[in-house]
Amino acid sequence: MPQVVSEAVQHLLSRAVSLPPWETWGRLRRAGGLTQAEVSAAIGIHRVQVARWESGKAEPRPPHRQDYALLLHGLAKEHPEALTDPSLTSGACER
User: What is the pTM of this model?
Assistant: First the structure.
């Protein structure tokens, strides 16, 4: 018998999307050759918001959190070195 999950529980699960440590977000983006403008356009937000996320001044919230998490996890699979290499930190703020 299939288990029915309430809409409220589904909402909580969507908010619980895990993200890598925020210190790696800019490194992952740069490792993938992406600009903040490209990421923001794909997610549907302003570039400044991506800069705030990458600087640790804000955290993504639903529904953008899910899209950003999917992007970061995909980039982490392609560029695992960006998770641990602090030398990839240059250019954190860009336009």
Answer: 0.76
